[in-house]
Design brief:
By secondary structure, the protein is mainly alpha-helical. Helix content is 68%, strand content 8%. Strands 1-2 form a two-stranded antiparallel ribbon. Helix 2 crosses helix 3. It is elongated and about 115 Å long.
Amino acid sequence: MSEKKAPSVWQGFKAFLMRGNVVDLAVAVVIGAAFTGIVNSVVKGVISPVVGALGTKSLDNYSSCIKDPCTGTGDTAEGVRIMWGSVLGSALNFVITAAVVYFLMVLPMAKYLARLEARRKAKEGTQEIIEVTELEVLKEIRDTLLAQQGQSQRPGQDRGDTWPPNQR
């Protein structure tokens, strides 16, 4: 009896890497990393100056003091602070990233795929119309042949009868 060899570790790893979803995920991570730089520059160059016009340039400086005395910054800070400005900055960064991804990538791709689907359905509809038309033509040909055959038959003989009446 012949036994099947188990795939080697290398072959299994190669099969894992060649799956489409792994490659797609790797591309998405690389694109996402590059896209993060763009979003960070938009936040730093556009959003932060707008926020800076209203208050401080950096949202990281906004905080609330829970336990006095709240003096100093960084390692020399005293008291207990909630750094809600950094949380707000991260939330804004996330919302901007999500909005840009949605409006510049997801929405146009969804519209493109919808147009492709509409074209495919229209093409299928055209093929169905053509098939129905061909079917109608074939029915007309059949009816014409039956009518011609009926005129050439003897009176009293049913259409489709191939046996003479006395041999039934």
